Amino acid sequence: MIRRLLPWPMTSLVLLAMWLLLNQTLSPGHILLGAALAIAVPRWTAPLRPVKAAVSRPGAALRLLGVVLRDSLMSNLEVARIILGPKARRHNSGFIKLPLTMRDAHGITTLAVVITAIPGTVCVELTDDRSCLLIHVLDLDDEQRWIDTLKNRYEKPLMEIFE
Predict the structure, then answer these.
(1) Smaller CB count within 10 Å for the chain: N or C?
(2) Does the structure show a pLDDT above 90 at 52?
(3) Is the pLDDT of residue 54 over 80?
């Protein structure tokens, strides 16, 4: 019964929280409207998501979250140094192809989101065969170092979580 009402309870909870945060209120009307949306949106979109993600290692997910938050903070500082620093350093951007070992669709999607969320990197494209991600890097000084960093810091933990 509860699963039919809330197919993804965490998604519903996050939607309600985001609604209240965006509206900056805890008024009964907004709580009611946010709850209605939190129930309706996942139910409407359920047919679009036929395979449910299974997180097998929540501890690994929490560790990855810590790594992403730390990397985001450090990358913000580095991007600020690049933008505010000498102009010559701004012309060091480029594209890399990140070969993927991971095959889980949820893991690959999460990897692309994480890469895009870290300042200075943007996931641009996934190849049709899902074997590589094309990534734009603001400060591309050593392509192999970037590949090794992305694979070790993000892909390996995501494989542990999703595969």
Answers:
(1) N
(2) no
(3) no
Tokens of 54: 């299974």
Backbone angles phi, psi at 101, to 5 degrees: -95, -35
Task: Name the pTM for this structure.
Answer: 0.72
- Give the confidence band of 89 by pLDDT, cuts at 50, 70, 90: low
Q: Which residue has the tokens 């309600």?
A: 16
Please report, as a single letter, which amino acid is at residue 21: L
In whole angstroms, what is the distance from residue 72 CA to residue 67 CA?
Answer: 8
Q: Tell me the average pLDDT of the chain.
A: 89
Cα distance between the two ends of the chain: 29
| pLDDT value at 86 more than 80 | no
* DSSP code, position 52: -
Q: Are 141 and 101 in contact (CB under 8 A)?
A: no
Domain ranges of the chain: 2-48, 58-162
* H or E element at residue 21: helix 9-23
More confidently predicted of 40 and 49 = 40
> What phi and psi, each to the nearest 5 degrees, are found at residue 145?
-65, -40
Taking residue 106's Cβ as centre, other Cβ atoms within 10 Å add up to 18
